[in-house]
């Protein structure tokens, strides 16, 4: 059966029963207390006929109940899906139908979204956290259950977590991460960067991102306290760092930029902060240097959901002259640079497709064998990212095979936006591309060819996106053009469109 991540939590509770495990605004739970609560949740699931292989969907912000539920579910083989709470109901409905979740656990603040989804999804059991409403409440439901350790089910190469990521077709795909994947990913974290027993970690990167979720397993493995911050506040976060004596956390570059707007940073006692991990997109060297001046080291991470999290790390000890790289692969991880669409490994310094090897490679896409076969070949994962490795093993990510846009470190897939915009009655053709932006890195721009005599307003296109997509995905600019450049076989030449945006043409 192999590793079970729920049992991994039990093991930490056995070794460190009284250490603080999960801390929030109004709670402080030890590892023993969280383990008991996860057992109660496992008992609740069994009482409601959920069994190994069934799916639990979690629509919650960063808080202990989300992770407690995940570990309880893992103990009996139930697969947890962390839903992106920024998504609109149509997006949630698609994902919930695709994964077939039988139970939806949600924060009370998302009750309206759940109401709009309720009759269009397969879930027949709903569990609310806080507030009042027609569904059973999480804490009350736990109180009625046994704290006894359940009979473990599942583990090893069985899926433990589903994380949905969009693809070039515009339809989200469920990335299956196994118990073994998450176990090995935690080792990669613990043994590559400064991640020591007794450290205190601030969980502020959303749990629905692999960069937010993977550290939870690293903390269990190493024996670290997780302090949850449900909503990122660039001013308040400094007070939490001080009050909770935080040692490290995971961020994205936009978060680090916004945090610098806080007043009197230099006057705060930040002696506990060992380092801050930052990923999602390249971290500017100027930002790394700015934090260095206030005594905080920045570690840069290149991560992929299909690799269970971190692929490589750059840390200051590797030398500031290498800060424009993504560093070296995590412990037990390995990458090679292959020629696109072949298994030919390219020599040092030559740009090709980044291919990932090791026990962190995901199991496949949920109910999508075609996409799985395209991504996983001979046990390794073809990332779709272009890069090169230098003579010392440092990875440089230089481009993307995919058309993905990274805006504020959020991944935006143009095809998903294009599918929404093309439904406007006045749109003949549309292409969405990324435009460089000083604040967000990139912003999505819609280039539209209107139908003859059609009258389209920019505001209408933006409103259409907002109605059907999460706010961060929506186009930020709309331009009307006469034609969209295409190749001889009819493929949209997005490279030309991006060049036009940069040049202002």
Fold and architecture overview:
By secondary structure, the protein is an alpha/beta fold. It has 2 domains: 5-389, Rossmann fold, CATH 3.40.50.12780; 405-503, GMP Synthetase, Chain A, domain 3, CATH 3.30.300. The protein has 15 helices and 27 strands. The strands form 5 sheets. Strands 2-1-11-10-12-13-14-15-16 form a 9-stranded mixed sheet, sandwiched between helices. It has an 8-stranded mixed sheet with strand order 7-6-5-3-4-8-9-19, with helices on both faces. Strands 17, 18, 20, 21 and 22 form a 5-stranded antiparallel sheet that branches.
* Count of distinct strands: 27
The percentage of residues in β strands lies in 25-35%
Mean pLDDT, nearest integer?
93
Helical content stands at: 25-40%
Shape summary: globular
Q: Which regions have little confidence, pLDDT < 50, spanning 5+ residues?
A: none
Oligomer: single chain
CATH class of the largest domain: Alpha Beta
Q: For the terminal residues, how far apart are their CA atoms? A: 59 Å
Structural category: alpha/beta
Strand ordering within the main sheet: 2-1-11-10-12-13-14-15-16
Q: Write down the domain tally.
A: 2
Radius of gyration: 23 Å
CATH homologous superfamily heading of the largest domain: ANL, N-terminal domain
Tally of contiguous helical segments: 15
Main sheet makeup: 9 strands, mixed
CATH third-level topology of the largest domain: Rossmann fold
CATH architecture assignment name of the largest domain: 3-Layer(aba) Sandwich
